[in-house]
Amino acid sequence: MSTKPPGGTRDFLPEEIRRREYVVRIVRDVYERYGFEPLETPAFENIGTLLGKYGDEGNKLIFKILKRGEYEASREADLALRYDLTVPLARVVAQYQNELPKFFKRYQIQPVWRADRPARGRFREFYQCDIDAIGSASAVVEVEQIAAVNEILTKLGFADFRLLVNHRRILTGLLEVSGIAAAQHETALVALDKLDKIGHKGVEAECAARGIEPQKTTSLLEMLRDIFTVPLDGESSTGLINTSRLESLDNFLASTAYAGAVGELRAIVRLVGSTPAAERVFVDPRLARGLSYYTGAIMEVAVDGIGSLGGGGRYDNLIGMFLGRDVPACGFSLGLERIIVVMTERSMFPATVARGGVDVMVTIWSDEARGDLLTLAAELRRAGLRVDVYPESDKLGKQVKYAASRNVSFVAILGDDERARGEVAVKDLRTGDQQSVPRAEAPQFIARRLNPEP
Amino acid sequence: MSTKPPGGTRDFLPEEIRRREYVVRIVRDVYERYGFEPLETPAFENIGTLLGKYGDEGNKLIFKILKRGEYEASREADLALRYDLTVPLARVVAQYQNELPKFFKRYQIQPVWRADRPARGRFREFYQCDIDAIGSASAVVEVEQIAAVNEILTKLGFADFRLLVNHRRILTGLLEVSGIAAAQHETALVALDKLDKIGHKGVEAECAARGIEPQKTTSLLEMLRDIFTVPLDGESSTGLINTSRLESLDNFLASTAYAGAVGELRAIVRLVGSTPAAERVFVDPRLARGLSYYTGAIMEVAVDGIGSLGGGGRYDNLIGMFLGRDVPACGFSLGLERIIVVMTERSMFPATVARGGVDVMVTIWSDEARGDLLTLAAELRRAGLRVDVYPESDKLGKQVKYAASRNVSFVAILGDDERARGEVAVKDLRTGDQQSVPRAEAPQFIARRLNPEP
């Protein structure tokens, strides 16, 4: 029998969990400082809650759970594994409408399951990391989400990212101005979403293949290029670039029903100027975001040479699906799995994360000394150190070798000589140095060397 | 359509998550300081990994997942939801045997799923919280686990718990001495495990009903009482009580094959004396623990009037199930769900956990002021405060009322007057006090009042 985890899933060994925890802790800490509160929902939902919510393709990718007990013989499914964090949120908003605050801001970091064909970087069990703010149509909502995401990426150590913003109705307006019929907007947006990867020619080919007249696509792409391209005289600040692009959008859409959307985007960009994200945010008229449920502003984190690390936007018609009425909502989903992959490739984790899970290993000399060694371990732990005790009486060299193989930083040795002098021998496995210190000072001695003052 | 979570599962709203996180953080922190490292496994396993591992009853309670895509029509299951954390650990130990350290100590805190009939306090999705130490038969292993659990319960604020220890082979010896046949040991232990609830008479009745001659059960129970009862002269310390019980055990088992087990238990009790758990540990010959897979020491956390909050023991024949050879192992499972229930009932959570997820709410006066208010929010967040911004321009009274309803501690008001003076009005919603402070000092002003020096 295979002992591998099921296809498309992963076992997370300690080293990997330390990396994941490091990222999740920063994400949660920032979201909490932005007033988001945690929510968790069950791993499975009643099957009717999920079926029909993700389109035909989605339905096929849902993991379904067989009825149990006397009903198992029916071979029917009554439950299904969580497929995303948005439908459960919509259910929660309906179920607890009298308990939740008027403006409900939640973050949710939980696994979801999709029966996709496993591939490099594509899993059947993976974590989503969503924030959503429900109940307000104010631009403050988008701006706070942009500011939070900016702070997360900055704290994680990303230096080369941009926060792109656009507006779903601006896209609709530009499609209309290009002469593309409303029935073909979805097709055009799906193609436009791939502009980065397939270029102008690719978008034109895909649109043509799906029945959009070539000159309309060309007109759209040229218009987008005109808006995107800002004439540089001297240096162009982020603010000047955005002002120019918003003016171009005004020019193209002034006489249409979509002028208001430009106003909404301008309000967001202006407010962002009052936050630490000011220099990161760029109006990008080409940003499409695949999902058809967006109704207002859309946003995305772009990293040079990497692509998107997450995105989101306003979607005012979705979260009320179980309430039977529209509820204003805006959300952002960070690509947690992708962020961890990129940070690993770029060695962005601090040394403390790589160092391993144990700061000090206490060696065991003899069975008689074990009690004293456990007391020493307790003393070291009281100082906050992560301490392992080698469980068996074994040759010292073997114990030290074992500690080194586990990436332990220090070994504490309490031999007969040390004990007679009231000392502990402390070996720094990172440098090989060994030094005897008074036992009472050993915890602080090690703690200081682990976290030297900056 | 119902918007409730599926039967036996729960949505965790922010307040509940804060309580759970508080407990989990202490558990993890202590286990890490004891050298345990985190492990996570997928929510589902290949169905063959789980079937047959939990007995006939267990098999029925496993949630099974239908095959997908072209195989869905077969109505067969190929995956099953995690049922406990021990079988996945055994799989991991086999799969990564060349990567894992010789002494692998892991903690794992993840949900498991069992299709039990839902009832008060019994869920179909619940968290397990396990530590296991694999690879050593040394008593140091048991002692370190006992010390860690003692530290966790102490840190959580439990003052009235005892850590009971016994040894599976001591029980076997006492059963043998009582004349109960080996084939009936399992039955007797299952009954004995309920001694607390059903008393001597109940155990005797259950054993009799299952074919054990009454005088044998009576003899067992009397022997257990004799061992348990320590003649008190003056004050009896924990150490004296345990010494007396171990001596009684020696007397009953000296001439049997089980004398060694008393020696093992004595070694554990003696070593515990060198740890902070010394005064908490009591030899209890009546402790049976239901699970038949224990092979050595067994242990349990007992709280007066509450019962067990967790338990564990040594089980040397289980973790190697996928390896094809025995591997020494010892584990402890904390009853996380039970601990949270008890702590909630006893109001054991600190005020910071009850206070809510937002420290300060910034009010919004007017659309023009929004930029400045976002800057103020950024200043407050930089000091580590959890800050929410009321998203819309609304009447101040309404905003303050909203903040109060959300259990927010402070409201920051930046009206025209305050702005002109470079100040912020800070209202403490806990006391009703309002005070204007220089804007630059506002973050520290609030932070100090939230966490006053002791």
Present the secondary structure layout.
The structure is a homodimer of 454-residue chains.
Chain A: H1 14-33, E1 37-38, E2 44-46, H2 47-50, H3 55-61, E3 64-66, E4 77-81, H4 86-95, E5 104-113, E6 125-134, H5 139-156, E7 161-167, H6 168-177, H7 185-192, H8 195-209, H9 214-228, H10 238-253, H11 259-272, E8 281-283, E9 297-303, E10 307-314, E11 329-334, H12 336-345, H13 351-354, E12 360-362, H14 370-382, E13 387-389, H15 396-405, E14 410-413, H16 416-421, E15 423-428, E16 434-438, H17 442-450
Parallel strand pairs in A: 1-5, 7-8, 12-13, 12-14
Antiparallel strand pairs in A: 2-4, 3-4, 5-6, 6-11, 7-9, 9-10, 10-11, 14-15, 15-16
Describe the protein.
- The structure is a homodimer of 454-residue chains.
- Chain A is an alpha+beta fold and 454 residues long.
- The first copy, chain A, is 42% helix and 19% strand.
- Chain A folds into two domains: 14-345, BirA Bifunctional Protein, domain 2 (2-Layer Sandwich), CATH 3.30.930.10; 355-450, Rossmann fold.
- The first copy, chain A, has 17 helices and 16 strands.
- In chain A, the strands form three sheets. In chain A, strands 1-5-6-11-10-9-7-8 form an eight-stranded mixed beta sheet.
- In chain A, strand 9 and strand 10 form a beta hairpin.
- The longest helix of chain A is centred in the N-terminal third of the chain and has 20 residues, at 14-33.
- Chain A is elongated.
- Chain A starts with 13 loop residues before the first helix and ends with a helix.
- The mean pLDDT of chain A is 94.
